[in-house]
Amino acid sequence: MNKLTTSFSAPFPLFRPIGDEPAEILLELDGKPLAARATDTVASLLLRHIAPETYRHSAVAGEPRAPLCLMGVCFECLIEIDGQKNQQGCLVRVRDGMRVRRQIREGGCDEQA
Amino acid sequence: MSRPDLLIIGGGAAGLSAAATARALGLSVELIDERAGLGGNYYAGAGDINGSTVGLVAGYRRGAELIGSASGSRLRSGVSAWRIEPDGTTRFIDASGAVSSIAPKRLLIATGAMERPVLIGGATLPGVMYAGAAQLMLKTARSVPAGRSVLVGSGPLLLLLAKQLISFGAAPSALVETTPASGNPATLRDLLSALNAPSLIREGIGLYAALRKSGVAWHRAATEVSILGRQRAERVAFTDGRGERRIIDADLVLLHDGVVPNDHVTRQLGCDEEWNKGQSCFNPLIDQWGETSRPGIFAAGDCTGIWGAQAAELSGRIAVLAIAEQLGVIDTGERDRRAEQPLRQRARQKAFRPFLESRFPPSLSRAGMAVADTVICRCENVTAGEIRTAVAEGATEPNQVKAFTRCGMGFCQGRSCSMALAEIIDAETGRGVAAIGRQEIRAPLKPIPLGSIASAPAGPEALS
Ligand code: FES
Questions:
Q1: Which listed CATH number (3.50.50.60, 3.30.300.20, 3.40.190.10, 3.40.120.10) goes with B128-257?
Q2: What span, in angstroms and rounded, lies between the C-alpha atoms of B209 and A28?
């Protein structure tokens, strides 16, 4: 599988916010600023902001994967947080200044531990 | 290293009520939970409650109350237990990556329920999630599906989620129920015992009425479900109740086939377990107080069998009474006196379950009959066909199949595949899942960055 394509049937995130809670936490996603709500986890934030097929690529499966359970069970939400690879994005709450990096390399594979 | 009277793993209904009860009895208590916030599944988000969100989801208030009454204890979220010793000593890693340990006098495991893994064609596509995940998005992140969502499977939670999404202006585009037309015939006895929990029955009837009124396309008794798409989920295919093949568009597919105990911790400890036929899952063997086959190690709530949040709350209280008695804080008479009412209430809560179990048997995912290219082990990408080949070549034990195929060897350590693996071996050999069992679970329960372990002092005594 090569670089992420843009020919998705639905190139939008899976979720949208409700309510008027402000996005006051500022973090970095792949080097670019992104604002989060204080109640977000890394996974919930990304599910509102990126297309799910760009969440991560599994090297073993050779295909994109995205969060499945959001309760710490499936390990499909692995992502690099503050330099630490393979963190469960659904368990980690957002913090100001956090550096989040998707585990997608040129060639479309993540780096496994 | 701290040495509290009680360490509780899991901050849901059972763990929080246990912490509150233990504090009231004067025990020193620590509670750790791996999630970003307390409340478990049922009370998820209750810890983040604020003025504008009160009333967003029923149950917030009770959850916030529980958290409040437990707050005299040291409650920590974002902390994952990764190794538990038979004496209860627990090593964990916190959000900053620091490793340390707690050696409690008694350990209570309250790790709750997880979605019954659904292993059907296309389930690994991005855009496929569990219904429970969408509920957590609603409760903890105040977010709803952005596009066309299709709810697929069986169980009260699926219907509840449909109703919740409708009320938040994010109605699903379809509900595809795989519940068999009449469920399994509920026995008269199940129905009669269900009448002990009339409020649950009222809730259920209200749910059906609300859904019918909503006009959401509702397909019933669907079979042969799979998800289609290239890079992400695009369509759901199924055979409807009249035998017609249907394909409907979907941006988000939300699967649900009931819930099962999240029993990884008791498994790592090697606690004896049993096959629960009614609930189609394994659960740890416990006595009425919640003590497992390992003395001094207790378990309470849905990680011991699916009985619901109200029963979990009661079980947390009941377990702590036995723990306090073992520690000499109350005598046996006092324990029994205090336990009398919660035991009676719990029996009433449990009475409703056989009705639900026969009404909503697992029906979405049948691993034993899965087509060959269905992914069973998501982490190592092992298919049903590869597992059958290994079985045919003589690997008839779960640990052997694991060694042959890497099924269950990935990050999740078999959390998603271990039941399915037993079901496939059963389908091939006819030995029965109860006899086949599941792969062994070893510490660490989750990958621990090598640096964290290396930088931690060697023995648990030297930690924290
Ligand atoms: S989404 Fe399943 S572990 Fe994070």
A1: 3.50.50.60
A2: 45
Exposed / middle / buried, residue B437 (Cβ in 10 Å: 0-12, 13-18, 19+): middle
Domain boundary assignment for chain B: 6-115+260-330, 128-257, 367-436
Output the CA A72–ligand 1 centroid distance in Å. Answer: 5
Cα A89 to averaged position of ligand 1 atoms, centre (Å): 7
Query: Which residues of chain A lie closer than 8 angstroms to B375, CB-CB?
Result: 61
pLDDT tens digit sequence for B55-78: 556 667 888 899 999 988 899 999
Residue B129 and residue A69: Cβ atoms within 8 Å? yes
Interface probe, candidates A42, A49, A68, chain B, greatest B C-beta count within 10 A: A68
Predicted confidence (pLDDT) per residue in A32-83, tens digit: 999 999 999 999 999 999 999 999 999 899 999 999 999 999 999 999 999 9
What is the interface pTM, i.e. ipTM, of the complex? 0.93
**Contact check, Cβ <8 Å, A14/B56:** no
The class (CATH top level) of B367-436 is mainly alpha
CB contact under 8 A, B114 and A71: yes
Residues B74-87 have pLDDT tens digits of 999 999 999 999 99
Q: What confidence score (pLDDT) does residue B458 get?
A: 47
Distance from CA of A3 to the nearest CA of B (A): 12
Q: With 90 as the cut, is the pLDDT of residue B455 above it?
A: no
Atom of ligand 1 nearest to the CA of A67: 1
CATH number, residue A94: 3.10.20.30
Most A CBs within 10 Å, among B411, B418, B448, B453, to test the A interface: B411
List chain A residues with CB under 8 Å of B126: 51-53, 55, 64-66
| Tokens matching residue B153 | 């499977």
Calpha distance B441→B268 (Å, rounded) = 5
- Cross-strand partners of B80: B93
Cβ-defined contact of B416 to A16 (cutoff 8 Å): no
Q: From the CA of B158, how many Å to the nearest CA of chain A?
A: 14
Q: What is the pLDDT of residues B272-299, one digit of tens each?
A: 999 999 999 999 999 999 999 999 999 9
Residue of chain A nearest B250, judged by CA positions: A10
Please tell me the distance from the alpha carbon of residue B121 to that of residue B103, in angstroms, as a whole number: 45
Please tell me whether the overall predicted TM-score, pTM, comes out greater than 0.90 for this model: yes
Q: Which residue of chain A has the CA closest to B127?
A: A52
Q: Prior bond to B444 cis, omega within 30?
A: yes
Residue A52 belongs to a domain? yes
Label residues A37-53 b or e (16+ Cβ within 10 Å = b). bebbbbbbbbbbebbbb
CATH number of B6-115+260-330: 3.50.50.60
The string over B193-222, giving b where at least 16 C-beta atoms fall within 10 Å of a residue's C-beta and e elsewhere, is bbeebeebeeebeeeeeebeebebebbebb
